[in-house]
Structure formats: C-alpha cells, structure tokens
Amino acid sequence: MNTKKNYKILIAEDEESLAMLIDYNLIKDGYQTSIVKDGELVPSECESFNPDLILLDWMLPNISGIELCRRLRTKKKYNNVPIIMITAMGEESDKIRGLEAGADDYITKPFSFPELIARIQAVLRRSNVSKGQNIVKVGDITINRDEYRVLRDDTSISLGPTEFKLLNCLVEHPNMVFSREKLLDNVWGVDNINVEIRTVDVHIGRLRKALSIKGKKDPIRTVRSAGYSIEQDF
Length: 234
Known about the structure:
Elements: E1 8-12, H1 16-28, E2 32-36, H2 42-49, E3 53-57, H3 65-73, E4 83-87, H4 92-101, E5 105-108, H5 113-127, E6 135-138, E7 141-144, E8 149-152, E9 155-157, H6 161-172, H7 180-188, H8 198-211, E10 220-223, E11 227-230
Parallel strand pairs: 1-2, 1-3, 3-4, 4-5
Antiparallel strand pairs: 6-7, 7-8, 8-9, 10-11
Helix pairs in contact: 6-7, 6-8
C-alpha cells in the first residue's frame, strides 16, 4: 500500500456541496482525490484513477451505489479495494444490505469529518496485510500474505480486505474460539466504537461464502453464544 500522502480516494457522491467538502477535508489530510457524480462513470474513473479506497454514495444517479458495489466486487482488480458506503439510511437492515453487497464499512449522513477520516484510516489499516509468517496453511486453506492470495486446495479464493484480515485472525490460532467482541478488536481495531456487533456476523457470512466449495466442509465453526473459530483439521 501507499504511504498516507499517496493514498488515492475516489469520492462517488452526487451532492456537489458534500462532495466538495469531503474533497477539501481529504486533501487537507494528505490524500489524493477524484470526484464522480454519476454512477455510470464510476467504473471508468476506477480504471483511470486506480483508487486505494472508494467512498460510494448509496443514492447515485443512473446506477445506485449498492449496485456498483456488487459489480465492483465481481471484478478481480477491485475485489480488494476497500469501499465505504455513504448513506442517509440509518436502519440496521440497510447497513447490513450494504455490507452484504461488499462494502467494508458505512457512514450515515449527516456525519462529522473527523469520523469520516477515522473510518477511512481504520479501513485502510484493515486492508494492509498482517505481518508475520508470510505463508500460512490450515487444513486445505493456504494464505500467502505477501501476494494477498488465498487458495483452497488448488482453487483461488477471492476475498475483500476485511474478510482477508478476518481469515488471518482466525488461522493465527486454529481451534480457538473468538468472541465477536474479540474479532471486532482484532480486525476493526480498538477504535471500533461505531461498528455494530452484527457487522462481524455479516463478514463471517461473506467469508464462509467465499470459502465454500462443493463437496468441501465449512472450515468455520460457529459456537453458539461464544463466537467463531477455524478448525485445524477439517
């Protein structure tokens, strides 16, 4: 990843005054930025700008942010690019829809710019590969941290940055049961006070789906009222 001053953030927001304020604050904080106001232009701007993170408004014209999020996650080039949804919809069900579509985080309008900066920094930290042993193998899953690559037997598994870090956390201690609170601390960081506990379940579901191969056992064990673990042998 880039140093902070070189991080490139794509702002996909059609409300001009808000887009300009976000742009001003991000540039002031040392980021490079680009603004897109139309959903149809987001894919082409991603190609030319090559962002490290995307701020994606839910209600973009022509193509909604949530649909764009789904489409970007189907493309290998953008599967690992962190996405923060910007939404005026504060219901838990709406937030879960955004996470299930592939977003790594969300922020609800109106928001403060210190909160936005904090969320950006947290998501960018999560997108960085954990340090330590570069290749880890548990059961039939192999994680290459240098290449940001996951294999299940010979099948390549495509993961977003949060799912990648979540898997790394689980395989560090096979068979150990991690509570949702512990996973929040380890994956989202100690500054996770605005992240709901249900978010862990959504990302575990996405990780399970990504690791699912016909005829293969689910490697993630759910321990009722306790949390999750990954088994050493499965």
